[in-house]
Amino acid sequence: MDPILDAIDKALQRKGLTAAAASRLAVGNPSLIKNMRADTGTDKRYNATALQKLAAVLELEFYFGPERTQSAPAQTGGFGEPDSANPTGQREALRAGFLPIPYHRAASPQFQGTAPVALSRAWVAARDLDPEHLSFAPVLDDAMSPALRKGALALIDAGHATPDGKGIFCATDRGVLHYARLDTPAPDLLAVTQDNRPLRILRGDEQVPYRVLGKVVWVCDSAD
To answer: What does the alpha-carbon distance between residue 224 and residue 212 come to, in Å, rounded to a whole number?
Structure first.
């Protein structure tokens, strides 16, 4: 089977989308994936721009280049996972009672592996947080400033990923990291509020490419 179509089919199943719905979200045309599947009797050729847009909708990595020997990092690895970049430092931190926290996969490829901030076990326990649900993600713009300033690191709790109108959430909007206050005023509506951006209301299928990663439970800001 074609590896590109195989990855697309698995992502459609994972997200519960039909090929037509995903195609419409990506390029406005419900026949994109259908046309990709069509047997033309020759080697398949794909439009790179359309594939990139489809990858964003399906939350797939879009990569073109030499074959890589390393697989992508886990979605939100636990604090006990080995860090190939600095395995000794991680073990020492664990022995000292600190928990190395990974970057969220959504922050790759610029941010990978273990974040440069370790949290004490006592600090995590006092806040009733599960270390296996924690990851760091960078703040890439000032859309939520001054609460989240560009350059800060936000600690994300994936165990709290249901919009409730309280606090700030980390999400991906068509694959791009994004922070906002989120609420669901109705079952088919998602209100996206950013302190320095216009209010957005996502309806129905508009919510599909918007993926909530978790709630921001702490911010590491070098400017503080």
So the answer is: 27
